[in-house]
Design a protein that fits this description.
The chain is α+β, with helices and mostly antiparallel strands. The chain is built from six helices and 20 strands. The strands form four sheets. A six-stranded parallel β-sheet has the order 3-2-1-4-5-6, with helices on both faces. A six-stranded antiparallel β-sheet has the order 9-8-19-16-11-12, with no helix packed on it. A six-stranded antiparallel β-sheet has the order 15-14-13-10-17-18, with no helix packed on it. α1 (about 15-30) runs parallel beside α4. The longest helix is centred in the first third of the chain and has 16 residues, at about 15-30. The protein is globular.
Length: about 300
């Protein structure tokens, strides 16, 4: 059976383009079929590869999608991979790169693992998002990291709701509704907790709220979270993963619930630094001090 790998790349970074060319050559030499997106083919070269439109059909029947770039590149690629349930394997060429499975120094080993099939597939929870005003649908979309309702110019007046019951009213810069995957992204910067990826939960994090009760909340994944922008107050903006944006007029209501479709991530066996537990990822990405740790006393 022919094995196909889709390779996507942040073409604005020369190092990413060079890495993509290396990955493509190694995959072709190993006898795998390689696809690249038409909008990237001119940069990476199209010799020996299949060039496909940059739409969800690009990932159809692909075994895995290798993404070279940062977390932004992986979020962009997730839009292609989610409908076909194609696993994403990120190679970090950005800064923190929390979603990436490998660093550029591990690139050869990562490709070898893909060729040998030495990887597992992990599901990451997403959220589905529905925004309305006066019954009219403004947006029907989804997110892997987070959904934000944010001010445009002036502070927002919102009411938060959990499972059909009002929770609190906030004057704020916005509200973040995040997944565990997104807990280390915007929600983290706004003071939210870090949630391990295997924990199923929704997060709600107010941004600069003027209220006594404005703590980050960890909510059941079976719950529906809503944010209403009060009438006669300034409108806002709905943003999903920082990629899909919609204007929210006054009186808009945004509902967030567990997504119907997860995003799949490939986890390698052979890349030691990235196949490690999430605790080790936190330590490595944030350069946390662990000097003096001795671990369990072993008999």
């Amino acid at each position: 059976m022919n094995r196909t790998v889709l390779v996507t790349v942040h073409t604005g970074r020369e190092a990413a383009v060079e890495s993509a060319r290396l990955v493509i050559r190694r995959l072709l030499d190993a006898g795998l079929r390689v696809r690249v997106l038409d909008v990237e083919a001119g940069e990476v070269g199209a010799e020996g590869v299949e060039v496909v439109p940059a739409e969800p059909s690009a990932a159809k029947d692909a075994e895995v999608m290798i993404v070279l770039g940062g977390d932004g590149s992986l979020l962009r690629s997730a839009e292609l991979a989610r409908p076909t349930r194609t696993p994403l394997l990120g190679v970090n060429l950005g800064h923190v790169g929390f979603l990436a499975e490998a660093e550029v120094a591990d690139l050869d080993d990562a490709v070898d693992d893909v060729v040998a099939g030495r990887y597992d597939v992990e599901e990451r929870m997403t959220v589905d998002v529905l925004a309305r005003q006066n019954g009219n649908v403004i947006a029907d979309t989804w997110a892997l990291n987070e959904v934000t309702v944010e001010k445009q110019e002036r502070m927002l007046e919102v009411v938060a709701e959990i499972d059909g019951r009002p929770l609190s009213r906030w004057g704020c810069d916005g509200v973040i509704c995040a997944t565990p995957t997104g807990s280390t992204a915007y929600a983290f910067s706004a003071g939210g907790p870090v949630v391990w990826p295997e924990v199923e939960a929704l997060l709600m994090v107010p941004i600069s709220a003027h209220a006594l009760f404005a703590r980050p909340l960890v909510i059941s994944p079976r719950s529906t979270v809503a944010v209403e922008i009060l009438p006669d107050t300034p409108g806002g903006v709905l943003s999903c993963d920082g990629r899909r944006r919609f204007d929210l007029p006054s009186g808009s209501r945004v509902e967030v619930r567990r997504g119907a479709e997860p995003v799949l991530l490939a986890r390698l066996h052979g890349v030691e630094s990235t196949g490690a537990p999430f605790t080790d990822r936190l330590v490595a990405k944030f350069e946390l001090p662990v000097q003096g740790w001795r671990g369990r006393v072993r008999p």
